[in-house]
Amino acid sequence: MSAAVYVISTVTGYVLTSAFLLKYPSLLHRRKKEAFRSRHISHRGGAGENLENTMAAFRHAVQLGTDMLELDCHLTKDEQVVVLHDSNLKRSTGINAYISDVAYADLPPYLCKLGVTFKRECYCEGGDDKRIPLLRDVFESFPNTPVNIDIKVNNDILIKKVSELVVQYNREHLTVWGNSSNKIIKKCYKENPQIPVFFSLHRVLLLLGLFYTGLLPFVPLKEQFLEIPMPSIISKLKDPEHQKRSQLYVQSDGRSFEWNFALDWNVIMGLFYWSLFFPFKPQVYVWVLNDEEDFKRAFDLGATGIMTDYPTKLKEFMEKNSYTK
């Protein structure tokens, strides 16, 4: 047998085996049980309708019927797990101090008005609730609501204490945690593999490489959630006027698509397509979307859930357009 024939037969066999296992992944991998499925996700509790990461925001989102609360965690000087996005208190409270240097009892309240990170030139004004809450407050108040926890710093004590709280309140089946950092994800999984984790940025890139090289069926994956930004959202936040001027149209089967739609399609579907065949069908969350055209685009592209600062707007859109469970 010549070398060329050997190479061709080997490659053909590999491609066919990979394709077969993509279609029947349970032959190699045990199907994981899905604890919950979330379509409507309130980013920081709904940062466009109430002050972010406050109990008022979480209560409002839960009363609306959100499927999941997304929040961020830090550790105070006296090792209390608090719900807060920034490591420094300046943006949220006006006090230039790091959360890790302040005891919980000494934390200042939120400012009365905060900018909405993922909505240009928009601000949210708060009511009476300006207190930075503890994670245990959220768990006690919403025992049946899934919570998505972003571990904001690479801190072993923080990770351990969050895990202990999840176990204490019997929420391993209602929690997903992690960070874009692969180091933090690894520590979370090592600390408590019973709590589902989402893909870090490093693992997302690895996932794409495995899929397009045909290696994905042979590699076990511990993650159950994909959380990805929509590319067009990033450009919209940077310069919405430039985005409008630079829209290009391409023809495909007689239909016109905006360039940004094509970019979103390539990124989101490249990540989502493989999950159609994988045994545990990971959930794909797109963040952070705050306009109806973006809601529609994400759901039409196949996203299983949308993270938003405006839970009321997303709920009304889903009900009006039948994007319900």
UniProtKB/TrEMBL annotation:
<keyword id="KW-0812">Transmembrane</keyword>
<dbReference type="InterPro" id="IPR030395">
    <property type="entry name" value="GP_PDE_dom"/>
</dbReference>
<dbReference type="GO" id="GO:0008081">
    <property type="term" value="F:phosphoric diester hydrolase activity"/>
</dbReference>
<dbReference type="Pfam" id="PF13653">
    <property type="entry name" value="GDPD_2"/>
</dbReference>
<dbReference type="Pfam" id="PF03009">
    <property type="entry name" value="GDPD"/>
</dbReference>
<dbReference type="InterPro" id="IPR052271">
    <property type="entry name" value="GDPD-Related"/>
</dbReference>
<dbReference type="GO" id="GO:0046475">
    <property type="term" value="P:glycerophospholipid catabolic process"/>
</dbReference>
<feature type="transmembrane region" description="Helical">
    <location>
        <begin position="195"/>
        <end position="215"/>
    </location>
</feature>
<keyword id="KW-0378">Hydrolase</keyword>
<dbReference type="GO" id="GO:0070291">
    <property type="term" value="P:N-acylethanolamine metabolic process"/>
</dbReference>
<dbReference type="GO" id="GO:0004622">
    <property type="term" value="F:phosphatidylcholine lysophospholipase activity"/>
</dbReference>
<protein>
    <recommendedName>
        <fullName>GP-PDE domain-containing protein</fullName>
    </recommendedName>
</protein>
<dbReference type="InterPro" id="IPR017946">
    <property type="entry name" value="PLC-like_Pdiesterase_TIM-brl"/>
</dbReference>
<dbReference type="GO" id="GO:0005789">
    <property type="term" value="C:endoplasmic reticulum membrane"/>
</dbReference>
<feature type="transmembrane region" description="Helical">
    <location>
        <begin position="262"/>
        <end position="280"/>
    </location>
</feature>
<keyword id="KW-0472">Membrane</keyword>
<keyword id="KW-0443">Lipid metabolism</keyword>
<feature type="transmembrane region" description="Helical">
    <location>
        <begin position="6"/>
        <end position="24"/>
    </location>
</feature>
<keyword id="KW-1133">Transmembrane helix</keyword>
<feature type="domain" description="GP-PDE">
    <location>
        <begin position="38"/>
        <end position="318"/>
    </location>
</feature>
<comment type="similarity">
    <text>Belongs to the glycerophosphoryl diester phosphodiesterase family.</text>
</comment>
